[in-house]
Design goal:
By secondary structure, the protein is α/β, with parallel strands linked by helices. It has one domain: 3-Layer(aba) Sandwich (Rossmann fold). It is built from 16 helices and seven strands. The protein starts with 8 loop residues before the first helix and ends with a helix. Bound molecules: 2-acetamido-2-deoxy-beta-D-glucopyranose. InterPro entries: AB_hydrolase_1, AB_hydrolase_fold.
């Protein structure tokens, strides 16, 4: 640094508090490393007793790639972050026993068996026993068979983010669609694999390709979509870009809201994503929560066991406390997953698929699909720099930063403006096609 500006007392206080948070974070996370280490033995024992042939955890396998013959040659493996997470106690190498390597996915667990730590309420297992596994889908048909411009109508697919569901769109955009949009567009909102009312199989690795396959099987193919727009929030953006790269001729526009993106030219892109999106810090609390759920397999499973498995009871208590008949959809959506589905989606999509992003962005850029990126400047979940670095990869994209909005209030609370923005994008892309 060439100059040393004088530090004002305010800045000094800020630096001191940041230092204190870092020091405390180190201590707290060292302790959590120990707790997770101990919980590993607990779950191993209980799973053994209750499940007979349980799904093994990722704690002890450091062999990563070489030990896995079925991983070789496969384009998309599981994320390195599943195996390569730091843990003080594992690194000391106190104990070591065989992990998952060389095993077929989810051996011992059939597709629909429920783990003892998962909720078995009717709405959580409603996907089981259906003939064919498809995503939970909300469709709203247009009120006219032909649109305003004389062609057959266009479709829009909405993809939600992590720990969310199609309610995100049903409660914000859908009720605010203008009459013109309602007449001319067929809108689809899916619950992603492992979330909301969609299947949550225990023998699935929830990689990007599995999420894509389900969307194809549930929406693109059955509705024979050959022309559609995409709207995605947060993690949904990773899936939307992959879908666009796979159907470059069909995708007419992509709207990405708070897209998590770190350049994949970086080595260990998946670790960068984990470290940046779930930094091991105790403050702010939101970050602390995501760090616990993303770094600690067993601690996360314990939280899910306490909270998700008993969600009906917690919802009842919350309603009582807040004196309300209905809870906000964002609260009820938080529990609509299993630990297995959320843990693997976090690692295999948000972290593991980061290295595929540049390839997808290149396709989108080459084909010239119209892209709009929207993010709030107060986003605490996805750093604002993600939108800027994505814009640098997509020079033609339109970037809009919303002042005083965070990861959710970029849509929630400004539903009407947000919906108008979306409609503008769809209409513009149709008009540019006609002209
Ligand atoms: C827009 O959506 C919000 C949130 O669902 C709702 O409160 C509001 O009434 C909607 N506006 C219109 C015009 O429907």
């Amino acid at each position: 640094m060439p100059t040393f500006p004088r530090v004002s007392p305010g800045r000094w206080r800020e630096r001191a508090s940041r230092g204190l948070i870092s020091a405390l974070s180190l201590l707290v996370f060292a302790f959590l490393d120990l707790v997770d280490f101990v919980l590993c033995f607990f779950f191993r024992f209980v799973d053994g007793v209750l499940e007979g042939n349980p799904i093994p955890c990722y704690c002890w396998n450091r062999r990563e790639k070489q030990g896995s013959p079925d991983g070789v040659g496969e384009e998309e493996e599981v994320s390195e972050t599943l195996y390569g997470r730091r843990n003080l106690f594992r690194e000391i190498g106190l104990v070591s026993y065989g992990g998952r390597s060389g095993e077929k996915e989810g051996k011992g667990a059939s597709r629909s068996t429920r783990r003892w730590s998962d909720c078995g309420c009717e709405s959580c297992i409603s996907w089981q026993g259906k003939e064919e596994e498809k995503l939970y889908l909300m469709v709203r048909e247009p009120s006219q068979a032909r649109n305003h411009w004389g062609n057959s109508f266009e479709s829009v697919i909405f993809l939600h983010g992590f720990l969310s569901s199609s309610s995100l769109w049903l409660e914000t955009v859908f009720p605010n669609l203008s009459e013109v949009a309602k007449h001319n567009f067929r809108v689809f909102a899916v619950d992603l694999l492992g979330f909301g009312g969609s299947p949550k199989p225990t023998n699935c690795m929830y990689r990007l390709k599995e999420h894509l396959e389900m969307i194809e099987k549930s929406v693109v193919k059955p509705f024979q979509l050959s022309s559609f727009h995409l709207v995605a929030h947060s993690m949904g953006c990773i899936i939307a870009l992959a879908l666009a790269a796979k159907y470059p001729e069909s995708v007419k526009s992509i709207t990405l809201i708070a897209p998590p993106y770190f350049s994949s030219t970086e080595v260990r892109a998946s670790h960068t994503a984990l470290n940046r999106l779930a930094e091991r810090k105790i403050w702010p609390p939101l970050l602390f929560g995501s760090a616990i759920m993303s770094w600690y397999e067993h601690l996360g499973r314990t939280v899910c066991f306490i909270y998700c498995r008993n969600h009906a009871m917690w919802e009842w208590i919350l309603k009582l406390l807040t004196w309300r008949r209905d809870l906000n959809f964002m609260i009820t959506d938080l529990t609509k997953h299993t630990h297995h589905s959320a843990w693997h989606t976090m690692h295999n999509v948000i972290c593991g698929a980061m290295k595929l992003m540049d390839k997808h962005l290149e396709v989108v850029n080459e084909v010239g699909i119209s892209v709009k990126i929207i993010q709030g400047d107060r986003d605490q979940v996805v750093p604002l720099e993600c939108s800027y670095s994505m814009k640098s990869k997509l020079p033609l994209a339109d970037l809009k930063i919303i002042a005083n909005a965070d990861h959710n209030t970029v849509m929630v609370g400004r539903e009407k403006d947000f919906t108008r923005e979306l409609e503008q994008i769809w209409f513009t892309s149709i008009e540019s096609k006609l002209s």
